[in-house]
Specification:
The complex is a heterodimer of chains A (213) and B (352). By secondary structure, chain A is mainly α. Chain A has nine helices and no strands. Chain A has a single domain, classed as MetI-like fold (Orthogonal Bundle). Chain B has twelve helices and 14 strands. Classes of the chains: A mainly alpha (213), B alpha/beta (352).
Amino acid sequence: MWNLLLKALGETLYMVGASLVLSALFGIPLGLVLVITEPRHIKPAPVIHKILSTIINIGRSLPFIILLVAIIPFTRLVVGTSIGTAGAIVPLTVSAITFVARVVESALLEIDRGVIEAAQAIGATTGQIITKVLIPEAVPGLILGLTMVAVNLIGYSAMAGAVGGGGLGDLSIRYGYQRFRGDVMLLTVVVLVAIVQGLQSFGSWLAARLNRR
Amino acid sequence: MPQVMIELANVTKIYGQGEKRVVALDNVSLQINKGEIFGIIGLSGAGKSTLIRCINKLEVPQSGTITIAGQEITKLKGKELRKTRRKIGMIFQHFNLLSSRTVYGNIAFPLEIAGVKRSEIKERVLSLIDLVGLSDKISAYPAELSGGQKQRVGIARALANNPEVLLCDEATSALDPETTKSILGLLQDVNQRFNLTIVLITHQMNVIKDICDTVAVIEDGRIVEQGPVVDLFARPRTPTARRFMKSVLPTEIPAEIKERALIMDDQNCAGKTVRISFIGDVAGEPVISSLIRKFQVDVNIIYANLDYIKNTPFGSLIIDLMGESQKIEAAMEFLEDQGLKLEVLNSVEPTA
């Protein structure tokens, strides 16, 4: 039983870790573009803004289990397979990208317009405003937001069992539920709760530490 | 002839369209000389904030031109605009400091933007921190500073790239009177030290009175009055200007003084309550004692006030003059000959 649990834990951490990093890699720039193209922001572009916003809303409106199967052809194209842990990372990432984009948007909109205006008055370029003002000022908000994304990804990864991705959720369904192993069920729940608690505490602590406001 | 630093010609800025259309600036023209402190005063919504934002093109006017040191900023774009903005410092009502950077980091920010070398940045930042008197707060974050200290950081940041112009957007409106005074002192100090042209907008008349050389009164997007501050105080032409003046100088005469009966001992005597106002050097002369000696009138001082408009003394005095009618007339003529402005508030004619 402990072997099963360790293996499942490893799979969960791998899926969540990989998709978190990948979704941040794509989602943060997406969120940035979404914000700066807003009507009164530093690079207003209403058409681009509207298109991005619509795409993000579509992504956000699909339940994960639907997205998982709906994008199977895309998953196959990217990683060569639609099953297993690798096959689960693609849909997890796709679903988290739009979530990250909204998280970035809300963190960046928290920044006082006056601070951005001050940077413009100083003669900063759009790139300088992004790297020296928007991102550093939004760090605490971004950390809290990404913590939320990670917790969500843990939840979504439980559904990865549907494509043979493994992980803690899969373990509790297959052993705990289908084989009536109450002990396995209980143990996976305890481990999941512990991971989420630990993650959230760490995220909150880090955000508070870096918050100078 | 003073050198013109900033020139606005027929600047018009309109927000919105149709029913929501608001004319924020209506054909505004101004000339601001090099090295002067130019104040723009107006109530909220008068357009002063839009006006100052047009000067560094944070707002783009629909028509008109703005020229700074011979360069037409309204025509500039991209790189040229950013380069010109570095020569125009700006401070704000709410300071707008980067909360994630220390005092040092905030002052270094414009230098990083301009691509100054790290070693030079350090030297420059340290001298600026010293200039604004925050050497003990170098590693503090904005959240740990008081309002006055934050504005000092704002000023140091605005001066980092050795600007020729400093724009102050309601820079003291969020500060208490004591702190306002110290920030105004600092602005006056940098104005003199670097021959820096300062443009400030405010709704506080005391800011104009304390440090400005020239003032423009803005109302509904139009400049309704402009000229040297001393002239505005001596001869306000518009109701708006008078209203602002009243907020710093007590020009209202108490009803008690206006209406009370002057007590005359002698039936042949007249009495007048007169307000004497003066601007400038006359304040130093012993007019009252000359008055008593030369004209044998009785003088009773009811009210006196002396204030300064930047460095010019400005005051008013309310006195009762009592004595024979002719002597009172002669005394008043004498006062007017001294360059004083007289206003009779109340008078009792001889009964005989």
